[in-house]
Amino acid sequence: MTGRNLEEEKEGEGQNKGYTRCRVLILVPYRRDAYQIIANLSEMFSKGEMKRVTNRQKFIDEFGDTEKELDDDFKLGISLMNRSIKLFSPFTNSDMIIASPMGLRLAMEKVDKEGQQIGSGFLSSVEMLVIEQANTIFF
Predict the structure, then answer these.
(1) What pTM value is reported for the model?
(2) Helix, strand, or coil here: 4?
């Protein structure tokens, strides 16, 4: 190996080799928990430079419904862009995914337009896993 190749290899060591953008996966047991996390993130970002939240009303309609607060089949991609947060972004373009274990499993079993199973490829770049209320999820 030449000195140049060794330097290039060292530079790339810390870089993500995944094919998607998602860095954070947050698993929560119920829709109400996802609602609270997104509400907190939205409030936190709105105090800084990120002022705009795209698809906020859709989020409130789908996650703010008190009849569905104990629903355990949901998933949501979140994309952080210049001065804005985009909710309901496709998983391959999301920086963060918030999902229930059931919603995540169903997303991985989903079939695309050509009849191919999507699989777990959108999780290839995850660097951080957060399991909220693990005692509820695992028992």
Answers:
(1) 0.76
(2) helix
